[in-house]
Write a structure and sequence with these properties.
Elements: E1 18-22, H1 33-41, E2 45-49, H2 56-68, E3 74-79, H3 82-89, E4 95-101, H4 112-115, E5 135-136, H5 140-147, H6 153-161, E6 166-167, H7 168-172, E7 185-190, H8 198-208, E8 211-215, H9 221-224, H10 226-238
Parallel strand pairs: 1-2, 1-3, 3-4, 4-7, 7-8
Antiparallel strand pairs: 5-6
Length: about 240
């Protein structure tokens, strides 16, 4: 088939060509659109997981079904709480590597709840409201400053108003055997993150033995700096 302006043809990338993107809490998969567009343009097959964020088990099940639909090796990518999901789901035999984007990278028996239980002195406190019916939201008035400080103001406002309820059961779900112990891992540290403190990100990345890239960016770095995120994913996909 010939390439046209509306239907470009790209050579298949070397290495893993299947990328699976997993979002975190309070948001849905639409935030990956910038990263998706870059990777698709570069010839990758990209799938977006839409987690219900009701429990870790439910989110892992949805992610594993997405992995199962792929026709070859997979690079599995998680943002924020999505890092817990990919740590658990990434042991799948199709997964070549796991990529953490300003994400939690838990060890066996750890959860979001345990990882945030003892924040370092002076660390920003995420504006998480008290749970209602077992679900959490961020305070809308503080959403942009805490989650998306470098995102266009209108887009950040939309993200705040379009929040997905995050189940308390998802926060307390524990990992049984983290993928980073058996698969190559990559970690993008967002240096201006006010949800997961950058020192905590660096510590988790070091523990996992990840290849680390650090960039300026808020917790929503996957939205504000899609090229930096896509570059690390492509590095993971093409590594020998």
């Amino acid at each position: 088939m010939a390439a046209t302006a509306l239907n470009p043809v790209h050579a298949a990338p070397a290495g893993a060509r299947n990328i699976v993107l997993v979002h975190g809490g309070f948001v849905d998969g639409s935030g990956w659109q910038g990263v998706y567009n870059i990777l698709k343009k570069d010839g990758y097959n990209v799938s977006i997981v839409q987690n219900p964020t009701t429990s870790l088990a439910d989110d892992v099940a949805v992610t594993r079904r997405t992995i199962a639909r792929q026709d070859g090796p997979v690079v599995l990518v998680g943002h924020s709480y999505g890092g817990v999901v990919v740590s658990e789901a990434g042991t799948d035999t199709k997964v070549k590597a796991v990529v953490y984007i300003a994400a939690f990278a838990p060890d066996k028996g750890e959860s979001v709840s345990s990882l945030i239980a003892n924040p370092p002195a002076g660390a920003p406190v995420p504006p998480i409201l008290a749970p209602v019916d077992g679900f959490l939201f961020l305070d809308k008035a503080s959403f942009a400053a805490s989650f998306a400080a470098d995102v266009d103001a209108a887009a950040a406002s939309f993200m705040a108003d379009a929040q997905v309820p995050w189940g308390v059961e998802a926060l307390t779900g524990t990992v049984t055997e983290p993928a980073w112990k058996s698969k190559p891992s990559y970690y993008l540290v967002a240096a201006d993150d006010r949800m997961i403190p950058p020192p905590a990100q660096r510590k988790m990345a070091e523990r996992a033995g990840s290849t680390v890239v650090e960039t300026a960016g808020s917790h929503a770095v996957y939205v504000s700096r899609p090229q930096a995120v896509a570059n690390l994913i492509k590095q993971a996909a093409t590594a020998e």
